[in-house]
Amino acid sequence: MRAEHPPALLPALREGRARIDVAGQRLEGDELTGAVGALARSVAGARRVAVVAHPSVATVVAVAGVLTAGATAVPLHPAAGAHERAHILRDSGVDLVLDEPALTGRAAPPPEPSPDETPALILYTSGSTGPPKGVVVPRRAIAASLDALAALWEWTPDDVLAHALPLSHVHGLVFGSLGPLRIGSPLVHTGRYLTPVPHATVYFGVPALWGSMGAADLTQLRSARLLVSGADRLPGAVAERVLRHSGHRILNRYAMTETLVIASPRPADLRTDRPTGSVGLPVPGMRVRLHNEDGTDRTDRADGAGIGGEVQVRGSGLFSGYLGRGPAVDDDGWFGTGDLGEWLPDGSLRLLGRKDTDLIKSGGYRIGAGEVEDALLAHPAVVEAAVIGVPDDRLGQRVAAWIVADDPDRAGLISFLAARLAPYKLPQEIHEVPALPRTALGKVSKSLLAAEFRS
After folding, report:
1. pLDDT digits (tens, 9 = 90+) for 148-177
2. Residue 179: is it exposed, middle or buried by C-beta count within 10 angstroms (0-12/13-18/19+)?
3. In angstroms, rounded to a whole number, what is the distance separating the alpha carbons of residues 31 and 39?
4. What letters, b where the CB count within 10 A reaches 16 and e where it falls short, cover 238-273?
5. Tell me: the pLDDT tens digits for 408-438?
6. Which of 354, 360, 400, 404 is 20 to 30 A from residue 153's alpha carbon, by CA?
């Protein structure tokens, strides 16, 4: 049975209980509610509205105003190239574009639709396998996902949330901006870098942001309650460094644009060590099964370790589909994420990488890139690592690694890996680079590594 939600998507905002501070500009209480209400009335009658998602108060107000008006917001990354921007605007068929709108008026918010199948957002994928696709996220999914996180993380209006995430993606926009407007916890956006915020109790970040924080800044996070990471695999070395300086184990949750949050630990789960790659149990309202290539092994419960396959999900946080395309789920409502996972003995889910880039088939063996990356990152000189399979005439694919390292001893690194990996899993080539290519959200782009290899 579907969980009950407040009739408004952003109740704390409507009730004057919200506060946002972005780049030093603050709006709160009735002033924030009035600014959103005025924006909502200015776009009345529009069906879809593009919002250039700068890290600004105006962006948060614009997205909230579009949703309050009952329209659909289409976030645009401010650094998107002209070709990508033109494609998104054409594909989404927006009625108008908002780019840092002036927030001079104040008005009472109009009545809004209840959180149902009405589209709230169209978020565009990275386009790594073709033109970016529009992911249609209904109001129902946002409400259900935020309520699940609030319950799991004990996230209340007494918390103060701080992050430095882009406002054009799920992590920074849905969880990091709409979350505070629904729950009522004040939001402080720290700009390009994640920095300590006085009185902040919860921090959101991605592995690249956590890895870039200095020891002094991490030490100032000791007074926080919860540190959250998402959007990419969390390297063990980064997690250990954060723990050493801040005293906190990072909560590593699992979400996608198409599904919102899928699985997450609870804060209490962080009191003890967790297996590398574990992302916790499926959240309330979401079901998970692992599907093997032969189609014979499907399970939605953990009855022991080693049961693995593609992660498939269904439930309250699922998107409505890709804009202008056919159904994205099978006849039973399951969506294939393209991620590989396995069940752990405690019933939690461990992610093993992407099906298309992280499953390497070499000489008849199936090798998970994540396992090789974890072995590389365990070496004290290796700061970052990415592993892919590259074409090989004899093996089909061979294991290739790219590392960012602090003057490693190449022979010593090979010996280190040989003690941890089976011979067929060892990288047959290791490229040392000054930096790994990343997406706008900070995720390592393995498609760019593959393209670089081919060229």
Report:
1. 999 999 999 999 999 999 999 999 999 999
2. buried
3. 12
4. bbebbbebbebbbbbbbbbbbbbbbbbbebebbeee
5. 788 889 999 998 888 888 999 999 989 888 8
6. 354
